[in-house]
Specification:
85% helix, mainly alpha
Length: 212
């Protein structure tokens, strides 16, 4: 955290959140995201076809990381009720992921589709509450980073809607729809990377502030 932000916090007074608590658990959130990202890579189609057992392990790790993420959010829910709502979404997502694991036959594929759609919606709701939670707890500590979290949510929604709109448009104008889907997919990847960076910065901000 730069000197300007430190001076700004000193003039504004002590933050209303538990800084040591957030410093501890946001750091763990950062590492859980790293684990989850690696686990998702293991569940890619190429890995699934080449080494099914490795892909299965990736699924288990990802589910465990999602549940653990929810537990951590619950531990800091005292600082923002948004975290509690996001944690609940994490738990539901983990349960759904376990439920759909046995569904692999083509005859059962029609069952998996609505379940996956529900999972996507719940995950999106969870992301909203998490982003808003980060926005809240940073407001008295680092207003700039707080605002960045709110803007990142707008980008998250934008890329999500872009993928849906591009998919629908591809039916009528294939080339244009494909371009929009591709751009939105890249945007989603960028948002995911930025989220990891922001959580790292947030953890660092709280750690630095707690040592002042």
């Amino acid at each position: 955290m730069d000197e300007l932000n430190v001076n700004q916090m000193q003039t504004e007074g002590k933050p209303t959140v538990n800084v040591p608590l957030l410093a501890k658990w946001t750091n763990i959130l950062f590492w859980l995201i790293i684990v989850s990202t690696v686990a998702n890579m293991l569940t890619s189609e190429n890995v699934t076809n080449a080494v099914p057992l490795l892909a299965f392990s990736g699924q288990i790790i990802n589910i465990a990381a999602t549940a653990a993420y929810g537990v951590i959010l619950m531990k800091i829910a005292s600082e923002s009720m948004h975290y509690r709502n996001s944690a609940i979404c994490c738990f539901i997502t983990a349960v759904i992921s376990v439920a759909v694991m046995p569904i692999s036959d083509d005859t059962e594929f029609f069952i998996a589709i609505p379940v996956v759609i529900v999972s996507i919606v719940i995950n999106m709701i969870g992301e909203y509450y998490e982003f808003m939670g980060h926005t809240d707890v940073l407001r008295d500590v680092d207003r700039t980073l707080s605002d960045k979290w709110f803007k990142l949510w707008k980008w998250y929604v934008g890329t999500f809607l872009g993928m849906i709109g591009g998919t629908v448009l591809a039916v009528m104008i294939p080339l244009l729809g494909l371009i929009i889907v591709l751009a939105s997919t890249i945007g989603t990847l960028v948002v995911s990377i930025v989220k990891i960076v922001y959580i790292y910065k947030m953890s660092k901000v709280f750690r630095n502030f707690s040592t002042q």
